[in-house]
């Protein structure tokens, strides 16, 4: 008997449906003009659906998913509410931004019924009401923003619309989960001006980047010149130091060589026949100097006795003999003072 009633109820649910004429509803309202099942005593409610039952025209209870039993003639299924998340397309509409730009904008609304009683008796058509509320809220929120902020703050715009819808739809038992803007269309002239603005901004960035690159290049070149000059000055300094050190070493080497030469000369003069050797050396140097007089310049100064070589040699030897006589005197003075003599006698003669 129970099985027969269930089959009969299913057949009646499929064949007998109460629908609203399509001429009286919009596509957005067809969802809520749902098909109402008839009371067949034993009913099976699908999952994620809530059937609102009235007893003698007054709200009685909400049928839960599963097996339910109703009283014939007294109980009637008045509304069928879906508890799934519903997606609603918000139609395209025009809105004016804060800077007086007319925009064509549409969106998608995601909502869910939390209270079937309020969704059934709180508003006549929940989907149509939420759609109209979304459109009006969208226009009011767009009027608070300029055109540039509309594109940059879409996330905050969506969250503000959701918050405004939830404040009004709480009495309807509907919860708006999120709202997404699908497309924003601007007038052609405004779009052209936006493109020109973008191009100008890009040219500005390119010019700024180029100027920054030029500045960095100039700074790098100046730093390079500075480092080059510093290194060059340090190189010149090191070169001068090395040159001075080399010249000092050369002077010391020349002085030591001259000192050794004077010592050797003094030793040679002290030997036997030293005077003769000195006379021969002076004569040779005189002849050599006389032969080179006319090689360096055209002006030549000659003494009156140029041909008297023996006289010149005799004069040089006289000077040498005079200096040699003064040498013993210096040695006797050093002996009297008992001071050790570290330098050769020839050096004292050369100093005088």
TrEMBL record:
Family (UniProt): Belongs to the band 7/mec-2 family.
Protein origin, superkingdom: Eukaryota
Compositional bias annotation for Basic and acidic residues: 328-339
Keyword list, A-Z: Mitochondrion
Membrane topology of the entry: Lipid-anchor
Main location class: mitochondrion
Gene3D superfamilies noted in UniProt: Band 7 domain
Species in which this protein is naturally found: Sander lucioperca (Pike-perch)
Region called Disordered, residue ranges: 324-352
Function of the molecule: Mitochondrial protein that probably regulates the biogenesis and the activity of mitochondria. Stimulates cardiolipin biosynthesis, binds cardiolipin-enriched membranes where it recruits and stabilizes some proteins including prohibitin and may therefore act in the organization of functional microdomains in mitochondrial membranes. Through regulation of the mitochondrial function may play a role into several biological processes including cell migration, cell proliferation, T-cell activation, calcium homeostasis and cellular response to stress.
Name assigned to this protein: Stomatin-like protein 2, mitochondrial
GO cellular component, as recorded: mitochondrial inner membrane
Taxonomic lineage of the native organism: Eukaryota, Metazoa, Chordata, Craniata, Vertebrata
Limits of the Band domain: 40-198
GO biological process, alphabetically ordered: mitochondrion organization
InterPro entries, per database record: Band7/mec-2_domain, Band_7, Band_7/SPFH_dom_sf, STML2-like_C, Stomatin_HflK_fam
Compartments, record wording: Mitochondrion inner membrane
SMART domains with a match to the protein in the record: PHB
């Amino acid at each position: 008997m129970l099985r027969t009633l269930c089959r009969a109820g299913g057949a009646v649910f499929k064949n007998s449906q109460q629908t609203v004429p399509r001429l009286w509803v919009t596509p957005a309202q067809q969802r809520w003009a749902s098909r109402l099942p008839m009371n067949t005593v034993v009913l099976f409610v699908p999952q994620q659906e809530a059937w609102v039952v009235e007893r003698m025209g007054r709200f009685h209870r909400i049928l839960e998913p599963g097996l339910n039993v109703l009283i014939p003639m007294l109980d009637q299924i008045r509304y069928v509410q879906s508890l799934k998340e519903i997606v609603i397309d918000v139609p395209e509409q025009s809105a004016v931004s804060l800077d007086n730009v007319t925009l064509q904008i549409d969106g998608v609304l995601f909502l869910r019924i939390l209270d079937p009683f309020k969704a059934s008796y709180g508003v006549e058509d929940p989907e149509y009401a939420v759609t109209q509320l979304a459109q009006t809220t969208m226009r009011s929120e767009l009027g608070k923003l300029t055109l540039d902020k509309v594109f940059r703050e879409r996330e905050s715009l969506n969250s503000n619309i959701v918050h405004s819808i939830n404040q009004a739809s709480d009495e309807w038992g509907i919860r708006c989960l999120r709202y997404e803007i699908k497309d924003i269309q601007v007038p052609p002239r405004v779009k052209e001006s936006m493109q020109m603005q973008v191009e100008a901004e890009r040219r500005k960035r390119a010019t700024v980047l180029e100027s920054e690159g030029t500045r960095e290049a100039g700074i790098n070149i100046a730093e390079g010149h500075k480092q080059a000059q510093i290194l060059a000055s340090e190189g010149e300094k090191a070169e001068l130091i090395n040159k001075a050190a080399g010249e000092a070493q050369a002077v010391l080497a020349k002085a030591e060589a001259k000192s050794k030469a004077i010592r050797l000369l003094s030793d040679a003069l002290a030997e036997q026949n030293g005077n003769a050797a000195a006379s021969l050396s002076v004569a040779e140097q005189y002849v050599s100097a006389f032969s080179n007089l006319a090689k360096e310049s055209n002006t030549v100064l000659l003494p009156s006795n140029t041909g008297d070589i023996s006289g010149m040699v005799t004069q040089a030897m006289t000077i040498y003999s005079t200096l040699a006589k003064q040498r013993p005197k210096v040695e006797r003075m050093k002996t009297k003072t008992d001071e050790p003599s570290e330098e050769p006698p020839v050096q004292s003669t050369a100093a005088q």
